[in-house]
Prior knowledge:
The chain is of the alpha/beta class. It is built from 15 helices and eight strands.
Amino acid sequence: MKNILTILLFLLFLTSPLIIQYNGTEPQFQGKVQAKEQCEEDDEDCEEEGEEDSDDENEHDEDDDVDEDHKDQDEEHEGAEYENEDKDLGESVKTSPGSLTSCTSSAAVVGKIGGSASNKVTIAAAKSANYSKGLTVFGINILATSEVSDEKLLHAANITAELIDNNEDGTPDNTCVTAMLNELSTYVSMYNQEDGNAVEINPDPLDEAGADKYSGLGAYETVDNYADGENHDASIEEIFHLITQQGYSNVYPGIFGESNTSTSSLAKAMDVARGGEQRCSEEECKWTYNNTSCPIWSDTVDAGDAWYFYADESADYATQMTEYIYWSVSSNFGMHDSFAGLKKAKSEWCPNTKEKLKAQDTTIYNLINDPKYAFPAVLPNASYSYYTFKKSDIKTFK
């Protein structure tokens, strides 16, 4: 009788739908153990769960990118392919960053406005905005009115190329930043004079096309840097503003994010440089500083005092950041390392050389010299050695 009872219990166990296994710490029901098999048998359920898991992982990865300061940003830079003459340049193609830590950019050194379907700056929109000509440099649009000479337009093209490809090897130094600038269809808006321009630019057609990220540049500002002993090449400044505001700020928000509410590493460093945190997002801001002069007999200001005092009341907190990183990077590559440069800088910025910057502002110095961010380290001279920009590169809108 005992044997018969044992056999019946054994058969009942074999035919039961509730099979229990032990994993060493807790019992597992069949559904948990055979999840993989069920997933393979029910593709729809598997797909839905996979999508949810993927979304959660993506959110987690994005948080890690910011929290870990993008420590894995040592991406492999892939260059554009060229097919013309000795250094032929194909059509400009926008490539969006797949993630913050691995990007490629296939944008060519030089291209035509409207030459890429992904570029929202079309010839029709540019013409409607009252631009008459332009070209693209690494996918970045440079537009000019009829009053701007071809020479000035090509000057801006050279500066753009040198800032994006500072080692001048034909490949963007930071492909993530370049891809972001392409993704946003950014452009440089060139006009002739500060006042008295006969052609009035109307950005509305470009805004409506989705191309609303740009930087203005007067042709009169594009000069050989401090060649006249007084003026710096503003094309370096204005084009660099575009690169940081729309490129670095978006790719590395936790490090270089520029906004009125930013708590990025850049924002914190600037607060120290200005002698303490001040916030303002109004049209008119009242900025005050505990120091507004640079030392004569020393390379650094006293501890706690401001060495950056940009007092323009039309500048909000985000604009203060844009100017701060410009002064830092341009001083780092020697743009203001002269008597004329010091004279220009000292009304709002003290560490006008690389050596002074290293001694005064260690935080920003280390950030912009970190190779994984690939900031330009050599002063552009409007002569891009990899490719010679020609008037034939300029597309005229008819």
